[in-house]
Structure formats: structure tokens, C-alpha cells
Design goal:
Layout: H1 6-36, H2 43-50, H3 54-60, H4 64-88, H5 93-110, H6 112-122, H7 126-132, H8 135-162, H9 171-191, E1 193-199, E2 202-207, H10 210-225
Antiparallel strand pairs: 1-2
């Protein structure tokens, strides 16, 4: 009978403590992002919410960009469950696509900081992110995004196979496009304001609700997929 070296036990314990510390920091970050927005919540605020020194935050994350990325991962993990659940509630591809898009809007309205995190990272150039975020964090973020997009692209592929959708577009490209445009529409729902012309050269504003945004996004997704009207 052999006994594992004590150093292995210490490593496992240290790894467990690090995972727990990361989870605590991300939970505090989510709370502050929901309360104040990504731009207003600073590392000092996050450290104070956890009850640690800011230096410890930087031992776990390379900086705020990586913290945003891994906080977004936690939102995306929840979103994937919501999209999967919505997809399972319908059988025909058009109804499943409508349910998925609707669930996306509902989640984004309920978690505005999810939209903030996603848009914050989408505004950055790829090389900039590589310089500020570790490869492991980028891998985790990419896995979380692709997990959500796979549900959407899978329904699109199914609809084309069954003849419910007539699009010739790549389902993966379409899923990515719907995700990006959906984030923009969620921001519109958050602001609740439409800009239009009252007369040539005369701007005015109107209002828009999250339900109107959802209806528009569902209709747009079905039209893009080539679903019959």
C-alpha cells in the first residue's frame, strides 16, 4: 500500500482555496456590476466587498479585463441553461428558434450586467485581449460563448434539414450575428428610447419596451433563417 505524498495534498488544498477565492471574487463582482455597471465598479470596491486586499485580486486575475471575462463566463453558463430549457419546450424548429431568442432577451433584461460585460469585451481588439487575459481565461470564455451559440446554431441546422428554414447562410455565422445584434438590441431595451425624425431634419424621441424588442428580435431571427410567414 502506498501513500500519496503530502505535497500532493497541499497542492490540491491550495487549488481548492484558489477556486473558492475566485468564486467569491466573481460573486462580489457580479453583485457590484448589477448595482453600478461595469465602468463604475473598481478593483478596490470588489476587494472591499469580498473583505480582502486588492493585491489578492491581482493574484487571482491579471486585471479587470480578465475579471470581466470570467464574470461574463458565469453569466453565459446560466444563459446556456436558459437557452437549452427554452429549446426543449418546443418541437418544431421555428418555435424552438423563437423560444431561444425570447429566452436570450429575458435573460439580458434580467441581468443588465451580462450585456455590459459582453459589450465591454466585444469593443476590444483580439490582440489587446490576448495581452491582458491569460490563455486559460480566454479558453473558458470561448467555451462558454460557444456553448450558447451551439444551441442556436443547432436549431438553425435542424430547421434547414427539415425544410422549416430556407436560408443558405452558414448556421454558425448566423448564430454569431444574432448574438451580436441581440446584445445591441438589449442595450436599446435598457435605454428605452427610440430616435426618429418628426420631420426632415427634425429629430424626436419615442419609447420602446423590452417586449417590443423581444418581438422584433424573434421576427428578425425567423426572417433571417427563412422561416415561412
Amino acid at each position: 500500500m502506498t501513500t500519496a505524498p503530502r505535497t500532493d495534498g497541499r497542492r490540491r488544498a491550495a487549488a481548492a482555496r484558489r477556486r473558492q477565492r475566485e468564486a467569491d471574487i466573481i460573486a462580489a463582482t457580479r453583485s457590484l456590476f448589477d448595482e453600478r455597471g461595469v465602468g463604475e465598479a473598481q478593483i478596490d470596491d470588489i476587494a472591499s466587498a469580498v473583505g480582502i486586499n486588492r493585491a489578492i485580486v491581482y493574484r487571482v486575475f491579471t486585471g479587470k479585463e480578465e475579471l470581466v471575462a470570467l464574470t461574463l463566463e458565469s453569466y453565459l453558463d446560466e444563459l446556456r441553461v436558459a437557452l437549452s430549457t427554452a429549446s426543449e419546450e418546443a418541437t418544431e424548429a421555428p418555435a424552438r428558434l423563437a423560444a431561444i431568442v425570447g429566452a436570450f432577451v429575458d435573460y439580458g433584461v434580467e441581468h443588465p450586467a451580462f450585456v455590459d460585460c459582453a459589450q465591454t469585451l466585444m469593443r476590444r481588439q483580439g490582440q489587446d485581449l490576448l495581452d491582458e487575459i491569460t490563455e486559460s481565461a480566454l479558453f473558458r470564455l470561448g467555451r462558454a460563448i460557444s456553448g450558447c451559440l451551439a444551441i442556436l446554431s443547432g436549431v438553425l441546422e435542424e430547421g434547414v434539414a427539415t425544410g422549416d428554414f430556407t436560408t443558405d447562410d452558414d448556421p454558425v455565422l448566423m448564430a454569431n450575428t444574432l448574438y451580436a445584434s441581440g446584445l445591441g438590441a438589449l442595450q436599446l431595451a435598457r435605454v428605452g428610447i427610440l430616435v426618429k425624425e418628426a420631420a426632415p431634419g427634425i429629430p424626436t424621441v419615442g419609447t420602446i419596451t423590452s417586449d417590443q424588442v423581444k418581438t422584433h428580435l424573434v421576427a428578425s431571427a425567423l426572417a433571417l433563417a427563412g422561416a415561412p410567414r
